[in-house]
Structure formats: C-alpha cells, structure tokens
C-alpha cells in the first residue's frame, strides 16, 4: 500500500508542492490547512509521516504536534516541521513538542524527497 | 530528479494575490483598533508570501516582504508599536509586493522593481519607524553551510557512534532508515550496541535503549554524513575520520571528533487531551477546490447548449403526445434547471471582494482631496456572477471618485448647512429578483440641476429652448463628453466620465438610475443581472420572427389601441392610465415592413428609471434564454443585445432595452 504523508499548511501552494514532489514517488499525500483539520485527517488516515507548518490560523503547528503526540495513534509517527531561518528558536520549541525533525523554508523538492525517504521509508 | 512545480507556482501566485488583497483590508482595519488576532493574521500573510515566494522563484518579493514580516513580528512581540506611519508604509509596501508578484517571478522587471527608488524609500521609511539604521536591501540570507575545503579525496573511512535520545522512537525517529541511508553512502559495517537493554520486566517499549557503531567507507564529505543525522541532534553522535587517502596531500586538516551540540533534553510532557483545548474549527475549510475560471466558462457553455437541446426535446415530446416520453422530458427539464442553478451558483462571488478595495480608494482620496470621508458598506455578502464583479470594479471606483470630488462639499460648507463635517459615502448591494442593485450614495449637496442644464446646452446635448424635466436633466451627466466640474480636478477629471460608467454597466446588460435631493445628497444605482449567461426571456412576435425581451425589464403588457394607431405617425406617446408613456414600434426600429395585423400589443418596459412601450404583433410567453453573442457583422446594430436559439431550432434576437429607451428620448427631444 502506498505510504500516506499528511501535509499540513495553510498555504495551498506549499501543500501542492509537497504533493507534486512526493506523489510521483508513490506516496499518497493527504492535506490539512491548519492543525485542527490536520488532526481530523490524521484520525482517519493511516499516516506514515506528518509534515507541518508552524504558523497557521486556528491551531498552530506546535499545538498540532503536541495534540498528535497526545493521541495513542500519534506516538512514533515521524513529524517534520517546516521552519524558517528567521526563527531558529522555533526548532527547539517544536522538538520539545515532539517533532522528529525540521525542514527549513525555502526548501527544494530534493530536500523533501530525502526527508520523506528517511522517515517514511 | 526534477519535479515539475509549475502547477504549484500557479497556485502560489493566485494565493499570494488573494492574500495581498486581504492584507489591504487587514491593514486598514488596524486604523480602527489593533488586537492580537489582527496582527497575527497580517504577520501570517507576510510570512507566507515571503516563505512561499522564495520557494517558487519570487526571490525579490521574498526579500522585500521579509522586512515587513520582521516589523510585524516585532509588533507581535511588543517590540514595536502600530501607528499611522507603519500602516501607511505597509499599505504602500503591499502595492509594491503586488507589483513584484505581477512580474511573474525573478526576471529583469522584478530586479528593476527591487532596485527602484520606491523600494528603497519604503525600506528606508520602515527602518526609520523601526528605529534602525537604513535597512540593507539584501535579506538575511541563510548562513551558508560552511563548505568544507574540497580536496580530491578518493575515499575516507569514518567511525560513527550513534546513540539516540531515550525519547527518539516516541518522536518518530527511524534508526532503520537512517542506517539504510548511511549504507547507501558507501560501504558500511553496522554493529548494534544493545548493552543498555534492560530485562524484559523493566523494558519500556517506547523508550530507546540502543546504540550503533558504524564503520563507513565513502567518498562523500562529512557534510553528507551529518545531513543524515540532521534530525537526530538530541542523540549523542560521534563522527571520526579514521583513514583517508587523497591524491593531493594538502595541508591535512586535523579531524576532530564531532560532538553535536546537545539540544535541551526535554521529555515529552503528557498533554491534556487535545479535544479539550482545541477551538471549534471551521470544518470543511480544506474541502475547497480551486478551479480556473475558464473551466467554469466551458461548463456554462455546455450547459447553455443543454438548455437549448432540452427546449427542443420539450417541443418534440409535446407534439408526439406520448405520456411516457412527456414525463421523462419533464424530469429532464427539472434536472436541467437544477443543474443550471447549481452551475450558476458556482460562478457567484460575494461582492465584498470588490467592495473591499474601495476602503483604500476612499482613504487615499480623502487625503488627496482634503475631505474627511467615512465609507459605509452594506450588503457585501450579496452574490454576483464573477464576470460582472470583475468588470464592475473600474466603474465603481469612478463613481466613488465622483461622489467624493463633486458630491461631497468641503467641511466648512457642510457645517454651514448644518451637516456633520465628516462626509459619508455609502456603498450598498442587494438582490431584487434576477437583479442585483448596487448603490453609491453620498450625503453631499445633490446635483446642481441648473449647472447641468447650462452645461448640456453649451455642449449641444440639449436644445437651448428645451424644457426637460429634472429627471431628464440628471440623465445628462451620463452623456458622452459631459463634465460639470468647471475646473478639471486630478481626481475625477480623467477623461472618462459617467458615460464610461454607463457603457460599462450596459455592456453587462445593466442599467443606471440616479436620484438626487438638493442639499441632501445623490444616489446612483446600478441594476445588474445576477448572471450574464442565461436569463429569463419574454418572447414576442413580429411578423414571422421571434424576439426576446429580458423579463427583468418587463413591467406589463397592454393592448395597442386602434385609436392610438390612427395617430401613430403624429405621436409617440401612449396614454397608459393617467400617464403618458413614449413608445416605439419595433417594426420601425428594425426597419421591417409595417405590420398589417389587426390586434397588436404593447410591452411596457422600464429602462434607466423611465418607462417605454414596445409595440409588437403578439406575445408568446417566457423561456430560458441562453445568450449568444452576435457575429462581428451584426454586433454594431443598435438595439440588439444578442441572440438565442429557441426550442424549434429557430434563432431569436434579444432586444437591448436600454439603447431603445435612449433612442426614444432622443426622438422626443427632436419632436419637442
């Protein structure tokens, strides 16, 4: 079965980019446009990897990561946060919330592929 | 591998454009008060435009936006205050960002904009507000990863010790994939160190107890190895070079065992259940689908054909008198109607999207004209066809300019006549049947009837001895080449007048109405069809031909009195109860042979607030009229708005009521 990757970002262009990059490699990409909708999708999908933005309306990435780690289904699932150079301290906060790693924006399709392979297999 | 991201780039441009449009309203909102949510929302827009911009090839946009993102981050963190200067410069910056977006990416035009005086002035202004020295035009680019001196290494041998943090597995680390990736770099000898593993009874299944020792032979630099462990910075990681063979033995860099700086080892604190703290989200917000407008147009075209085909089917079925067939046809008819409504609704947008712009227009004009003006907006949720909305923006801006420039008096005059010093312009929209009414109302001095009359005579738009009623005079402001302002101001005197507004509205098959009360103000109302593609039509017959009058314009139908006919050539007015209504014989209008039918009818229509009778041979009923544009050979014929295809396959011409109404007025004036 295709591995499912959950992309959570309020920007559709970023979600599209993740999808366009990973779908050709056989990954199935499901989407959420903020933490809240991300949780809904996470509950019903067999997610192998979560890629999430941090700064989002309704529910931000930190809250989202904490919420996932608080769910029985959320233990052990790799979570990658999308961070920016302007906020290095966000990495530590995300790590503390339970993130597995990060990708710094701007990122290239190659960055994304290497992370997906490393964490989703 | 290369990935084609052009579709995502397109989405980015669209998304960024919408966000920048929204940003304007958000910034203007700050003038009425600041709160955390507003500032957060602004920050998010700037953050997204910057972050995505740099990913999708809009580097100049990203670099420029960065400075403003930084400023609003400062606001969020209390380092900066919101004041009018910041709002002003941010509004101008927003325009600059839009221009950079419109360049379509990093190209010479974007480079020109980036180096422009406007950009420099915006950044300098921002820097001054932020209390910094002049901002450098470059963004803070990433501290480039210190590239290791490249020597021509054939291969090196590394000893790697990897001991993940106890919480690593819980946090989703996958040591198996890490090892596989490491092995892919070269030849790897991987040994597992399970010495810390406790007895089963004491084992916590989610905790990591393992460590790995790897000997790796690879031609890859240290960077490549470190990159694999990028996310394992909690782990104890040692990478030591134990052997190297180079072709050039340059000054050997001493290799130091690398101990990654340890991040704070924060355990995952159990959180309260998410459901308790999560606000109710707008469920389904991610269910939206973005569709290019062109695809919608295709669907609309197909649907139009379907409506026509269905009308034919209806007609044929009625002739066969087959009950089964007729019931199916009825069912199909119901489905087509449902499909039509659903499709039309997809094209509908709230008019808010264009109203939002006007806050900025009013704000900028207030400054320019030195008039304090408040804009009130009502009915922004009213929906209109997207095409109509797109084409309305220009005319509305012009009308607002007119209201503010000519309509509203200056503060002194307002106060002298007992009005509040601050002028008011109200923009409102509401739906009425198949039409949307958009009004622009000011509480100014009202139209100066005498001045208009005088100007109209000067311009030869009105005979010197004409005795027009006030309503007719007010219509004059829509005449081509008319302008009442005795001195051209830079605001509204821009070569286009209200005639441009009228023709734009008529191109949308709409009408304009004007109501003015001296000393109290003026209201201009645009009546627009909700949609352009399919209308309710009123079928009339002239000889053997069928014509369609838009039903929305039809008021009533009356018999054409024999007595009137007798006087037809001498008069163009019809006695309708206590009123006189001008009328036109459509035979004459379209140069057809004069009708010889005994009983004729008059369809009373309303255009631009005036009634007009259209004499026809017969009335046939209503239909769904799918509007087709006329060919270029017929488009110039006045009085026709298009054509449609009837159920029997015949073509019917659609009558342009507004043009006919104007023609009737001209005819009357000539007679007068």
From TrEMBL, chain A:
UniProt keyword Phosphoprotein present: yes
In-chain residues carrying the UniProt-annotated modification 4-aspartylphosphate: 53
Classification via InterPro entries: Bact_response_regulator, CheY-like_superfamily, Sig_transdc_resp-reg_receiver
Keyword Phosphoprotein among UniProt keywords: yes
Alphabetized PROSITE patterns for the sequence: RESPONSE_REGULATORY (PS50110)
Residues in Response regulatory domain copies: 4-120
Record keywords: Phosphoprotein
UniProt name for this protein: Response regulator
UniProtKB/TrEMBL annotation, chain B:
Domain HPt residue range list: 1-104
InterPro entries membership: Bact_Chemotaxis_CheA, CheA-like_dim, CheA-like_homodim_sf, CheW-like_dom_sf, CheW-lke_dom, HATPase_C_sf, HATPase_dom, His_kinase_dom
Pfam families found in the cross-reference section: CheW, H-kinase_dim, HATPase_c, Hpt
Domain of life: Bacteria
Biased amino acid composition, Polar residues: 250-263
Histidine kinase domain location: 284-532
Coiled coil segments of this chain: none
Region: Disordered, residue numbers: 248-287
Residues where Phosphohistidine is found: 47
SUPFAM superfamilies: ATPase domain of HSP90 chaperone/DNA topoisomerase II/histidine kinase, CheW-like, Histidine-containing phosphotransfer domain, HPT domain, Homodimeric domain of signal transducing histidine kinase
Catalysed reaction equations from the record: ATP + protein L-histidine = ADP + protein N-phospho-L-histidine
CheW-like domain: residues covered: 534-666
EC number(s) given by UniProt: 2.7.13.3
Keywords for the protein's UniProt record, in alphabetical order: ATP-binding, Chemotaxis, Kinase, Nucleotide-binding, Phosphoprotein, Transferase, Two-component regulatory system
Keyword match RNA-binding: no
Function: Involved in the transmission of sensory signals from the chemoreceptors to the flagellar motors. CheA is autophosphorylated; it can transfer its phosphate group to either CheB or CheY.
Descriptive protein name: Chemotaxis protein CheA
Species annotation: Pseudotabrizicola sediminis
């Amino acid at each position: 079965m295709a591995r499912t990757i959950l992309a959570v970002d309020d920007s559709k262009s970023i979600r599209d980019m993740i999808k366009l990059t990973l779908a050709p490699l056989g990954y199935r990409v499901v989407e959420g446009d903020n933490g809240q909708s991300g949780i809904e999708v996470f509950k019903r999908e067999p997610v192998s990897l979560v890629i999430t933005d941090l700064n989002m309306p309704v529910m931000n990435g930190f809250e989202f990561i904490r919420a996932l780690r608080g769910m029985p289904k959320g233990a052990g699932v790799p979570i990658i946060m999308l961070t920016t150079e302007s906020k290095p301290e966000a990495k530590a906060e995300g790590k503390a919330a339970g993130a597995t790693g990060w990708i710094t924006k701007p990122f290239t399709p190659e960055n994304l592929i290497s992370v997906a392979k490393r964490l989703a297999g | 591998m290369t990935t084609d991201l052009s579709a995502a780039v397109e989405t980015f441009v669209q998304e960024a454009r919408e966000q920048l449009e929204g940003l304007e309203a958000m910034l203007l909102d700050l003038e009425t008060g600041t709160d955390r949510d507003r500032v957060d929302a602004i920050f998010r827009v700037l953050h997204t435009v910057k972050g995505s911009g740099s990913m999708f090839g809009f580097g100049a946009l990203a670099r420029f936006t960065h400075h403003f993102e930084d400023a609003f981050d400062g606001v969020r963190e209390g380092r900066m205050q919101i004041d009018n200067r910041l709002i002003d410069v941010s509004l101008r910056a927003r325009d600059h960002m839009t221009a950079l977006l419109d360049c379509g990416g990093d190209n010479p035009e974007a480079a020109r904009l980036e180096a422009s005086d406007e950009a420099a002035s915006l950044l300098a202004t921002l820097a001054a507000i932020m209390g910094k020295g002049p901002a450098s035009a470059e963004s803070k680019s990433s501290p480039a990863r210190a590239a290791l001196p490249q020597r021509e290494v054939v291969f090196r041998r590394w000893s790697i010790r990897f001991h993940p943090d106890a919480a690593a597995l819980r946090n989703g680390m996958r040591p198996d994939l890490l090892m596989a990736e490491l092995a892919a770099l070269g030849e790897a000898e991987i040994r597992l160190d399970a010495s810390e593993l406790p007895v089963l009874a004491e084992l916590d299944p989610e905790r990591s107890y393992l460590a790995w020792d790897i000997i790796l032979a690879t031609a890859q630099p240290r960077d490549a190895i470190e990159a694999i462990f990028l996310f394992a910075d909690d782990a104890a990681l040692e990478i030591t070079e134990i052997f190297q063979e180079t072709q050039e033995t340059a000054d050997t860099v001493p290799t130091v065992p690398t101990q990654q700086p340890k991040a704070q080892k924060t355990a995952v604190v159990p959180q309260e259940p998410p459901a308790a703290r999560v606000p109710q989200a707008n469920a389904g917000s991610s269910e939206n689908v973005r569709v290019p407008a062109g695809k919608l147009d295709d669907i609309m075209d197909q649907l139009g054909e379907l409506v026509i085909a269905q009308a034919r089917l209806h007609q044929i079925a009625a002739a066969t008198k087959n009950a089964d067939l007729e019931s199916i046809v009825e069912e199909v008819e119901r489905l087509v109607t449902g499909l039509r409504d659903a499709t039309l609704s997809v094209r509908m947008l709230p008019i808010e999207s264009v109203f939002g712009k006007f806050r900025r227009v009013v704000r900028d004009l207030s400054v320019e004209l030195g008039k304090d003006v408040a804009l009130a907006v009502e009915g922004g949720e009213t929906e209109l066809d997207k095409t109509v909305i797109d084409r309305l923006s220009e005319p509305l801006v012009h009308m607002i300019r007119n209201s503010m420039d000519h309509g509203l008096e200056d503060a002194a005059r307002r106060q002298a006549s007992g009005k509040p010093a601050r002028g008011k312009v109200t923009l409102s929209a509401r739906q009425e049947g198949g039409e949307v009414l958009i009004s622009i109302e000011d509480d100014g001095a009202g139209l100066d009837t005498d001045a208009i009359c005088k100007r109209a005579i000067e311009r030869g738009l009105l005979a010197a001895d004409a005795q027009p009623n006030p309503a007719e005079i007010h219509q004059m402001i829509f005449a081509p080449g008319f302008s009442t302002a005795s001195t051209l101001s830079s605001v509204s005197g821009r070569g286009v007048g209200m005639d441009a507004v009228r023709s734009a509205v008529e191109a949308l098959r709409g009408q304009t109405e004007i109501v003015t009360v001296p000393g109290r103000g003026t209201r201009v109302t645009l009546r627009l069809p909700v949609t352009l593609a399919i209308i309710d039509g009123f079928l009339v017959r002239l000889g053997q031909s069928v014509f369609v009058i838009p039903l929305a314009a039809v008021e009533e139908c009356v018999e054409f009195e024999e007595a009137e006919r007798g006087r037809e050539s001498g008069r163009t007015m019809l006695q309708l109860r206590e009123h006189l209504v001008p009328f036109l014989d459509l035979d004459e209008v379209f140069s057809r042979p004069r009708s010889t039918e005994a009983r004729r009818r008059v369809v009373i229509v309303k255009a631009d607030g005036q009634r007009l009778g259209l004499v026809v041979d017969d009335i046939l009923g209503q239909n769904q009229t799918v509007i087709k544009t006329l060919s270029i050979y017929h488009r110039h014929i006045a009085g026709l708005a298009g054509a449609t295809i009837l159920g029997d396959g015949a073509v019917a011409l659609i009558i342009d009521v507004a043009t006919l109404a104007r023609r009737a007025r001209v005819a009357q004036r000539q007679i007068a």
